[in-house]
Amino acid sequence: MATKGITVYLVRHGQTWFNHFNKMQGWCDSPLTENGIKDGTSTGIILRNVAFTHAYCSDTTRATRTADLILSKNLTGKIPLTVTPFFREQFYGYFEGEDSGQTWYMVGFPHGAKTYPEILEQYGVDASKDFMHDADPFHEAEDARTYWTRLMKGFRQLRSENKEGDKVLMVSHGTTIRSIVDKFGKNDGFVVTDSPRNGSISKILLTDTGIKILSYNEFEA
User: Fold this and answer.
1) Is the pLDDT of residue 1 over 50?
2) Does residue 65 sit within a domain?
3) Residues at the annotated binding site?
4) Where does substrate bind (predicted)?
5) What is the domain range of residue 161?
6) For the chain, what is the domain count?
7) Which stretch of DSSP H or E encloses residue 14?
8) Cut 0.90: pTM above it
9) Tens of pLDDT, residues 70-79
C-alpha cells in the first residue's frame, strides 16, 4: 500500500540577476532575468495539470514572481497563494551580494576546502552553514541550528494548513531545497553536490512519521 501524506512540489525560483552574476543571494533579492521569467513560465506549463490545493512561496520577490508565473499557467482552477518567511533562503549575513566563488573560498579555506562543492563533499551541507556563520565578521549568517529552527516552523505550517492527499506548490530557493533533500534523502541516494536548477522541481512527501524525498532537480510533474 502506498504511503499517503501531503505531497509538496518544491520549485526553485527562476534565474535572477544575482544568479547570472554568480553573487551570494540569500535574504537579499534581485529581479528575475528574461531567462528567469521563461523558467517560471516553462515550469508552470509542466505543472499546468497538477491540481494543487494550496500554493506557497518564500517572501522574496524572486519567489513570489515565480509562483505567480507558475500559477498563471495552471488549468485546474484558482489556487490560494500564501507567502511565508519560513522557506526563505539561507541568510548569508556579511556575505550577501558578494561574489560566490570568493565567498566560499574565504569560508572553506580554514577547513582545507576552496570551493562550495569541496565543502559539501568533505563536510556536508549543514557544516557549510556553520562555517559561514563563523567566517562572517558580524556572525549574523545563519548557522545550521538557526536555519533548521526556521525551516521546521515551515513544515509545521504546511502540516497544519493541509491534509492528507493534498498536493501543494512551494516556490523556494536553491540552498533551501538542497538542504531539505540532503537532510531527509541522503540515505535514499540523492546527491546534492549539484545545485537544483532554476525552475526545477523536487518532490517531497510529508507523512505522520516524517519527510520522504520523492525526486530531486527534475523538470517533470
Assistant:
1) no
2) yes
3) 12-19, 62, 89-92
4) 12-19, 62, 89-92
5) 6-89+143-218
6) 1
7) none
8) yes
9) 999 999 999 9
CATH of the domain at 177: 3.40.50.1240
Percent of the chain at pLDDT above 70?
A: 99
Cell numbers at residue 23, please? 553573487
Q: What angle do CA 130, 131, 135 make, to 5 degrees?
A: 120
Q: How many CA atoms lie within 13 A of 195 on its CB side?
A: 15
Q: Indicate which residue of 13, 54, 133, 173 is catalytic.
A: 13
Q: Where are the beta strands (DSSP E) in 13-166?
A: 54-58, 81-84
Does residue 195 lie in a domain region? yes
In a domain, 1, yes or no: no
89 as an active site residue: the answer is: yes
Is there a contact between 195 and 115 (Cβ–Cβ < 8 Å)? no
Say how far apart CA 104 and CA 111 lie, in whole Å.
Answer: 11
Tens of pLDDT along 99-138?
999 999 999 999 999 999 999 999 999 999 999 999 999 9
Annotated binding residues for substrate: 12-19, 62, 89-92
Residue 165 lies inside a defined structural domain of this protein: yes
**Is 111 considered catalytic here?**
no
